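Help wanted!
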Amino acid sequence: MTKWDKFLIIFMILAALGGFVLVKSITSREGQVYLVIEIEGKEYKKISLAQPVSEKKIVIDTLLGHNIIGIYEDGVKIDEADCRDQLCVKMGKITKANQINICLPNRVSIKLISDESDLDIISY
Amino acid sequence: MRTKKLAHLSLLTAVGIAIHIIESFIPLPIQGVPGAKLGLANIVNLITLVVFGFKEAIVVAVLRCFVGALGTGAVTGFFFSLLGALASTVVMFIAYKFGSKKFSLIGVSIFGALSHNIAQLSVAGIIINNILVFSYLPIMTLTSLFTGYFVGLTANYGSKNLQNILSKTENKY
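Answered by r_m:
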């Protein structure tokens, strides 16, 4: 183990810690996050989560099924679904931009997107 | 020498396959990167690189990944480990050739582990079509520091002994 090895290890630890901070700053931009609800691939509703949202529950009834989507302080989740496997309910809250939750039997998907496109994130 | 080299290379490959398969039993607490592994099989790549050379190391890496994928049955894991092993072998060769005065094998293997991670995450990003997998890079870097350190230590002792054995048997004949 030479002097340079130690330098390399210390540098890598610092870089990893810096990376943690960077990742945190990318994923937790609260101000400009939108909730997009899609039914059968088409946009159904787009709600800004920047200011306090008035409607805390969104009920979706289609021919395929019934879903209730709940908006909370720290995230969005599918509260209720009448599908068999209940995977979307079990998945829990999505809290960060670019996360997605799909109820496949009912063709309903909710996702969080941020104002800035993905390309801005790549430039980090 | 040719036959002996062949025998040694196949032995190294066999050891690499064994490590590769055993390693796939170790779960990593990283979600979203299927087939992400510690990278302990890099020991074999590094030893081959030091004792035999670059071309042989590439051959051993490719064979190890191919047979290892057959052994573990992970088809997506095959691309991860193949590209990771190729990238880390190339980077370790460069680091060993131009930096062996400054870095010991530990430093070389840390370089290899880092490039292994970056290659794996690039493949993951392409497969699931999301650049955000790179947010796993910091935690993978920290784990790769530990494995890189131990891989370097092991390769240090292993390559010394292997070189001894090779030079002794060469004198005999």
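OP: Thanks! One thing I noticed: The interface with chain B takes residues 1-2, 4-5, 8-9, 12-13, 15-20, 23, 26-27, 98, 118, 121-122 of chain A (CB under 8 Å).
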